[in-house]
Amino acid sequence: MDIDNKQYKSIGKYLRLSTHKVRRILEQIQGKNYKEASLMLEFMPYKACKSINKILQSALSNIKNNNDKLDINTNKIIISKAFADKGPTLKRIQPRAQGRAFPIHKPTCHITIELKEII
Description:
Keywords: Plastid, Ribonucleoprotein, Ribosomal protein, RNA-binding, rRNA-binding. This is Large ribosomal subunit protein uL22c. It comes from Membranoptera tenuis. By secondary structure, this protein is of the alpha+beta class. It has a single domain, classed as CATH 3.90.470.10. Helix 2 (34-43) runs antiparallel to helix 3. The protein has helices at residues 19-29, 34-43, 48-67, and strands spanning 8-15, 77-86, 90-95, 101-106, 109-117. Strand 3 (90-95) and strand 4 (101-106) form a beta hairpin. The model has no long low-confidence stretch (mean pLDDT 90).
């Protein structure tokens, strides 16, 4: 099985994060190799970095499991695609003065990361 033309992806669904905030991080790691992206995510001060790093590690383990190779060079694996789609919005109500209600929208998102190996 050749890894050259195959792309391996991992998806995180229904994460309680805003798509705007996640896309800001995904734009920075797209096109980088696995080690560099993992290091960047570890030291960025954003909440979404922890979830994105877990999805990135899951995509790497997909490569290892599907190829029966345990010694994959992570310097040659790059992030070919990384994007966030909007998920369903949780709608809540905050009570206000004089019997009024104030809507609260809690966004969710789906994060997809695709990896491929370069030669």
